[in-house]
Amino acid sequence: MWRREPNTPGLLTPMTLMGVAANSKGACTNTREDFVSGPAHSRGEGCRPQQMMRGSSRCKHTQNLSRTVCMTNCPTLIVTVGLPARGKTYISKKLTRYLNWIGVPTREFNVGQYRRDYMKIYKSFEFFRPDNEEGLKIRQHCASAALNDVRQYLSDEGGQVAVFDATNTTRERRMTIFQFAKQNGFKVFFVESVCEDPHVIQENIVQVKLGSPDYTNCNTEEAVSDFMKRIQCYENSYQTLDEVLDRDLSYIKIMDVGRRYLVNRVLDHIQSRIVYYLMNIHITPRSIYLCRHGESELNIKGRIGGDSGLSARGKEFAKLLSQFIAAQGISDLKVWTSQMKRTIQTAEALDVPYEQWKVLNEIDAGVCEEMMYEEIQESHPLEFALRDQDKYRYRYPKGESYEDLVQRLEPAIMELERQENVLVICHQAVMRCLLAYFLDKTAEELPYLKCPLHTVLKLTPVAYGCKVESICLSAEAVNTHRERPENVNVHRTTEDALRTLPDHF
């Protein structure tokens, strides 16, 4: 795994990046040629960032039909650059996951996968030799097919960002992609990963590439040898992004796995978010432990929200959690809680320093705070039904939605990406949002992720995802998970509305 150097700069914020974009110019004019939803039940909040990002703004025709004007909010094409085994696909997948999580419709287009789908069987590095005309034609065909899919996604399917994941190591290839984007009214942002550390490259090959379908029937030594020769096929023609020759392009250049960065011409909000994210991630081996607070007094009564303390069983869980964490033997473990009593009381039993984060507070249920579901159905049946119809976007009167909560939690996600081993003691809705980020869950799946009390989830980032271990500590607790009922009509009966209600005392 790649390691972050100790002199890595501190947490970057969007304000830090404002200077980068100060002299940028966002609009573009181009010639059109062929190359190969908002919150449902919000109240008085005005236009949200997601609505701005998901806007339908595309290229608008002027009176001159041969020209189109690329609007400020036009789609973005992210293009990776770099030799094989430099972490391009890792970056692509993380970026895609992050942008989708914050509400920007994003899809990854991996040219290597197009090639595998086309060829089915990989023989050797000879396919990638620059003098292999047949291999070159196939690679060009696959790249064109991927770009056609990019165009369809961004122009016809409502996509806002497409990630074109390929080597793109020559200036000629990058200019071809740039012209394709210009002709279709897309902005382009290049992401180059440069690494000369042989240990890092070797680790990446062993941990990622050997699991590729290309090397299913090869032993490790043969696979490594073949892949190193594949890299050599690209090295002679590789042209890195240049500060002078490419000064008019928008890009970030990541050197030696985040030891240094070069950022050029950030044009808009989306590009600044991309830079902000990429400058805050690392790949040091670590684990993130997520759990809810111990069972609370209001949990026992079946009431949502509030700020009650732990029940007797909740205190027992806190003791068991302390024993579990001690058994992990993590000397540098950081512990985070919300500012609510039940998480603080849980952390105090660990007898270790902990930090309180306001952003980790439970979702604000507004006028429904400390109410039972039965009471909400009785006094606010319309609200109860509307929430079941769209639980992610529904906002409690005078409270929050899951969509709001995701925006609130973004600073915590950024800091989690920078940290190593962390235990986060939080709440059901908060834990669902964090899990959805790490496990790449959709907005529809997020509000129904199961996060039971007295259970620890150990998340260990791996090459292209996250390994999850669920550890149930032996302390009983009430069930607080309510599934979406089949009948979500506003005129449903009380029985239908409460059909999936969890048991409580």
From TrEMBL:
The active site is at residues 293, 362. Residues 71-285 form the 6-phosphofructo-2-kinase domain. Substrate binds at residues 292-299, 342. GO terms for molecular function: 6-phosphofructo-2-kinase activity; ATP binding; fructose-2,6-bisphosphate 2-phosphatase activity. Pfam families: 6PF2K (PF01591), His_Phos_1 (PF00300). SUPFAM superfamilies: P-loop containing nucleoside triphosphate hydrolases, Phosphoglycerate mutase-like. One of its GO terms (biological process) is fructose metabolic process. Keywords: ATP-binding, Hydrolase, Kinase, Multifunctional enzyme, Nucleotide-binding, Phosphoprotein, Transferase. GO terms for cellular component: cytosol. PANTHER family: 6-PHOSPHOFRUCTO-2-KINASE/FRUCTOSE-2,6-BISPHOSPHATASE, 6-PHOSPHOFRUCTO-2-KINASE_FRUCTOSE-2,6-BISPHOSPHATASE 4. In the C-terminal section; belongs to the phosphoglycerate mutase family. This is 6-phosphofructo-2-kinase/fructose-2,6-biphosphatase 4a. It comes from Gadus morhua (Atlantic cod).
